Amino acid sequence: MGPASAVSQSVIQSFSHSVPGKIVPARPVAQNSIRMMNRMVALLVAAVIAVTATHAEEELVAVVRLISFSSRNVTGNLKIVQTPLDGPVTITGKIFGLTEGPHGFHVHEKGDLSEGCKSAGAHFNPENNTHGAPEDTVRHVGDLGNIMANTAGEAIINITDNIISLRGSNSIVGRSIVVHSDEDDLGKGNHSLSLTTGNSGDRWACGVVGIESSYGKWNSGSFTTPSVSILVIFFLIAVHQHLKF
């Protein structure tokens, strides 16, 4: 008798002794009952795998409206997508009103724009690291490098990053994205600000990262846990009904 069959027989015997005030002798376990139990277990496992696969295909979507608080009329719209839920984050969009060339592009720690981009705080840096390039092992979570503007002052954004997230400890939701006046030296310059801001200059535009997709998707663990729990409950009910006969 295999482990699954032994477990099935044990469960059946436990149910047979559980009727209050009445002693019922354990019934012998027939082969067809064991096969039925094994089928039910297999169906439960398949259902859990299906729910988990659905979870992996989900995506989170956020948006940013960039506005300028300086004399520069820098504006833009960004879309931020994370799929699967714990996968990389992709930022796409367009920014207008820049000077030609590279501009520092970072996530800042606060979503407070009450005093313009100044009140957005420093780079988002929960691990208290030095400033670096997006590909560096040591970097701020919010270090997204540079964007490049063409001769018309327009920048097409298409950035994929494995460090920022739309949920969890590295979530950028409710924080700000800031576009700077100058090129980010990625922490490799000799300036006193290289290891803190990349010496990327003034804050020309900023915007708060806001939720676009439905709120229910943002609750960590909200996909698999309830679904699996419901499946387990139905499984136990089915087992109980099966053992009554």
UniProtKB/TrEMBL annotation:
PROSITE patterns: SOD_CU_ZN_1, SOD_CU_ZN_2. Residues 74-209 form the Superoxide dismutase copper/zinc binding domain. Its cofactor is Cu cation; Zn(2+). InterPro entries: SOD-like_Cu/Zn_dom_sf, SOD_Cu/Zn_/chaperone, SOD_Cu/Zn_BS, SOD_Cu_Zn_dom. Gene3D superfamilies: Superoxide dismutase, copper/zinc binding domain. Its EC number is 1.15.1.1. It is an enzyme of class 1 (oxidoreductase). One of its GO terms (molecular function) is copper ion binding. PANTHER family: SUPEROXIDE DISMUTASE CU-ZN -RELATED (PTHR10003). This is superoxide dismutase. The lineage of its organism: Eukaryota, Metazoa, Ecdysozoa, Arthropoda, Hexapoda. The gene is Sod.
